[in-house]
Amino acid sequence: MQRVAAASTRRAFSSTPRPSAAAEIKKLGVIGAGQMGLGIALVAASKAKVPVLLIDNQQASIDKGLKFADKLLEKDVSKQRITQDDATAARQRLTSSTKMEDLSEVDFVIEAVPEIPDLKHSIFSQLATICSAHAILATNTSSISITKIAAATAKDPTDLSAASRVISTHFMNPVPIQKGVEIISGLQTSQDTIDTAVAFCEKMGKIASKSADSPGFLANRILMPYINEAVICLETGVGQKEDIDNIMKNGTNVPMGPLQLADFIGIDTCLAIMKVLYEETGDSKYRPAVLLRKMVDAGWLGKKSGKGFYDY
Q: What are the residue boundaries of the 3-hydroxyacyl-CoA dehydrogenase NAD binding domain, all occurrences included (predicted)?
C-alpha cells in the first residue's frame, strides 16, 4: 500500500508543468570550473553548439579551466577530429564569471561542485531566486539525494515552482570522452524537466540512462563497491596493486583496473561516495575501506594530487 501511495504521489508531482517550458535551450550555465564542470561546458559548446557561461567563485580556477579547454581543443584539431574553425567557434561560445547572479538569463544550469551536501543545498537555494521561472536546475551529483537538493529550493514543502525543475545530469568522467550520462529525478521533478534534460544531453552527444533517486543511483551503486572491494583486497594482502588491476583489465576487458580508476576519479571522491552509500543504506557491505580513509588523511588523492595508488 505504501508503494502504491508513493507512486501516486510521484506521478502527481511529475505531472506538474513548468511555468513556461523552454522549447529550446539557448544558453547553458555551468557552476564549477573544475575537471567535471569544464568538461561539461566544453562539450556543450562543441557538440550542442550553445553559448555557455562558466561560473566559479575563484578567478584562478576559471583561468585554469579555460586554459585546459584550449589545450583539449588544440589536441582535437591536431588529431583532425575537428577543424580549426570548429575549435575557434566552440571557444568563442565559452564565457565566464565569478558572479552567480549572471545566471539569470540561462535556460539550463548544471552545478558541478564538490560532493558536499550543504554546499549544493546552498547553491540551489540561490538558483531558485536567481534563475528564470523556466530554467532547468541540474546537479552533477554522483551520490547526493536529488529530492533533498530540490527541497532546498522551496520555501515550504508545497512550493514546487523551482523544485519541479530540479534534476541530476550525472556525467561520466572524463566528459569529453565518456558517452554515458545518468538522468536522476527527485520526488518533485516534473516529467517535462526529465524530457528536456534527456533531450539536451542527447544534443550534447550523450547516451542517457534514467535512474531512481536511490543512494549511489546506478553507476556508483555498482562501481564504488567494486573499487572499495579492490582496496580491501590490497589492504588485506590478497594481491598487490598491479595484480589487482591486471586481472581485471586482462580478465574482464575493462580499460583500466579498479585502483587506477580510483586514482583518476579521486580517492577523496570515492571515499565520499562510499560514506553516502553506507550512511544512507545502513548496510555494512558499503563500509568504506580503512585504506581509503588513510589515503585521504595523507593527502594521497590520486592523479590530481600526484600520488594515489600510483605515482603521477
A: 27-208
240 pLDDT above the threshold of 80: yes
How many Cβ atoms sit within 10 Å of the Cβ of residue 226? 14
Residues marked active site are found at 142, 170, 182, 220
Closest CA to 150 of 166, 169, 127, 171: 166
Element (H, E) at 182: strand 180-185
The CATH number that domain 28-212 falls under is 3.40.50.720
Helix then strand then coil, % of the chain, to nearest 5? 55, 15, 35
Q: Give CA 188 to chain center in angstroms.
A: 19
For 147-197, the pLDDT digits (tens) are: 999 999 998 888 889 999 999 999 998 999 999 999 999 999 999 999 999
pLDDT at 49 over 70: yes
Q: Could you tell me if 224 and 277 are in contact, meaning their C-beta atoms sit under 8 angstroms apart?
A: yes
Q: Side chain identity at 226, as an amino acid letter?
A: Y
Every domain range in the chain assigned CATH 3.40.50.720: 28-212
CATH fold of 219-303, please?
N-(1-d-carboxylethyl)-l-norvaline Dehydrogenase; domain 2 (1.10.1040)
